[in-house]
Design brief:
homodimer, alpha/beta, Aspartate Aminotransferase, domain 1, Aspartate Aminotransferase, domain 2, seven-stranded mixed β-sheet, two-stranded parallel sheet, 14 helices
Chain lengths: 382, 382
């Protein structure tokens, strides 16, 4: 095979138009030329986050923004609740613990979604909880947590922030930051935003900015007060990831052209088609309430998923993701993120049909495709 | 849909590696740096043509090389035989007529292949025939003519040249220029050679070079005597299409890496899979002896192929080719040329399954794919 197909949940393929933008000669960042781009991007980001607040850009990957959320708003000894439903829930817990924050968790089987009523009960029993931290979409399990419903519960508590890792949900699922009452949302460049890794985004509500004033955790590079001050002037506190921001300007133009509602719809349709295909091939989905970022499914017990994923990547040219931690070797995850269209879904399914056969699984060729096409045909040519 | 898929028989997609090579700063062509590349390319081309002769590079599209073949070897009043089996057979006839050459044709229904015995009979009846001109692969009908068998017949005649338009056969079907006894073969950059259009290639046998000495047709830009003299010195008579030649150097490295036999096999497998898919979907192939460059098939009579092709290109993002002349609107042609792998075939078939449904054709979704995968799975992961 000749080509490489990147169908893992991040990093995701970057459109040619964006790559070309990023190959232009580097300009200096303290210039009116860059400030003009910065301002345009800052305005565009507000639309994606559905917010009037500033969306700050940080040179760092998503984890930097996760850490910024914690170190700017909390204090050692604070009580927080982490929804621990996968690999990235664990990351919230680990970051908080690093700073002496007292973490309670709601631990869920991987594949299960957070329950708003359970969070409500927890907050009633623990009214001093300073923050509830969770993922919008838990990439490790391909679960979508009901962020809107959880926000309804959390925002009843004046002294509790809702902190959402939206790394694989913002730009995928319509996320109404202001309307839903999210307090902090973060995301990264290498998922729905169709960019290389290296840029992260963070947005704070007014309530969260009030917490910032009271936080005593030492922070320098990730000090959001300095960033807010600078970014209100269309610049950054430290050297920005400027080619990524130039690329982001093009991405936001592409979003505008496609229409944000169509960006969400595209993820939804490719997600739906992939889930239908996987089920038609006889597999069980991992996620109870699936995210449109990626679809995870269980492999037959006698198949070594690690070997399958390696074979597909090295010999066939398709990069899927396998499972993490206790799901290592047990599942495959197929991304629908970012620069991914109907025929990427078809390639993903066709590769699976043929690849699984190679591994001795009794797959009826074309069965997954037929189910995917049954969905996709309704959107073809629209 | 987001992406564009170029699945017409030329121009064909250019690999990123080649595009990047061609975006390097332009250098001057009268330099040792360029001569080194030129020499490397010239040697590599001999392998693809399976020849000890020089393969000349011309800045011009394939038609320039077709014209060069005629004006360098023939004379006004010469008798030639043209295999007129499609759009490009007609082009040989038109070029010859432009220069006062007397053209006889064997006219074939589109979709039929030339018959060596018929050519043999013609040459027996017309021993003064100076040349037999045909296509290796007739792109308009997706037919492969039996070049090897025809060469056997023509080379019995000392005073007759076999002139082959290999624009969609060289690099697709193994073509042994010396061994088979072809006298002139030409091709273009934008097909199996995975380059943008603008460069053509031409190779002459010793016998053909003898004809060159006797040809009186005036020619300047396309004078192959001047080109041979220059190109033996690793330069060209006039300014070369130098970025394309730099790109060609990378293409030849890619051929080397894949192995020429695998390049042919890849075209054969994708051709076979596409033909199987089209037949499984209930359609009739156009070509009696199909080329591995492209697959043409008849649409149901009530389908306007022009509208279908336009819809697929403009609304779905897949560029197929339709029919030409009297087959306009009646057929679709799917390319397998150049930078095209198994999942491009899958995309082509899946697009058809869904697109034809949109046009009211009763297609069983997944049926074409299943037939294609049945073939492709044998080569997956090799």
């Amino acid at each position: 095979m000749l080509k490489k197909y990147l169908i893992a949940p991040g990093p995701t393929p970057v459109p040619e138009k964006v790559l070309l933008e990023m190959t232009k000669p580097v300009i200096h960042h303290r210039t009116s030329e860059f400030s003009a781009t910065f301002e345009k991007v800052a305005n565009g980001l507000k639309k994606v986050f559905s917010t009037e607040q500033d969306v700050l850009m940080l040179a760092g990957s998503g984890t930097a923004a996760m850490e910024a959320a914690v170190v700017n708003t909390l204090n050692p000894g604070d009580n927080v609740l982490v929804i621990n439903a996968g690999k990235f829930g664990q990351r919230w817990r680990d970051i908080c613990k690093t700073y002496g924050i007292l973490v309670s968790t709601i631990d869920m089987d991987w594949g299960k979604a957070a329950k708003p009523e359970e969070i409500e009960q927890f907050l009633k029993a623990n009214p001093d909880t300073k923050a509830v931290l969770l993922q919008g979409s838990e990439t490790s399990t391909t679960v979508y947590h009901p962020v809107e419903e959880i926000a309804k519960v959390v925002r009843k508590n004046e002294n509790t922030l809702l902190i959402v890792d939206g790394i694989t949900s913002i730009g995928v699922h319509d996320t109404k930051f202001d309307e839903w009452g999210i307090d902090i949302a973060i995301t990264g460049s290498q998922k729905a935003f169709m960019l290389p890794p290296g840029l992260s985004l963070i947005c704070l509500s007014k309530k969260a900015w009030n917490f910032v004033e009271k936080s005593t955790i030492p922070r320098y590079y990730l000090d959001l007060r300095k960033e807010l001050k600078s970014q209100k002037q269309a610049t950054t506190a430290y050297t920005p990831a400027l080619t990524l921001i130039n690329g982001l300007a093009v991405v936001l133009e592409m979003f505008e052209e496609e229409g944000l509602e169509n960006v969400y719809k595209r993820h939804a349709v490719n997600g739906e088609a992939t889930r239908a295909a996987v089920k038609a091939m006889g597999f069980k989905l991992l996620a109870e309430t699936p995210s449109n970022a990626a679809t995870g499914f269980y492999l037959p017990e006698d198949i070594d998923g690690g070997k399958l994923v390696k074979f597909m990547r090295e010999k066939v040219g398709i990069t899927y993701a396998g499972g993490q931690d206790h799901l290592k070797g047990r599942i495959v995850r197929i991304s629908h993120l970012g620069y991914h269209d109907a025929f990427d879904t078809i390639t993903a399914i066709s590769g699976l049909e043929m690849g699984l056969r190679k591994f001795g699984v009794d797959i009826k060729l074309g069965s997954g495709i037929a189910a995917a096409e049954e969905i996709l045909q309704n959107y073809i040519g629209e």
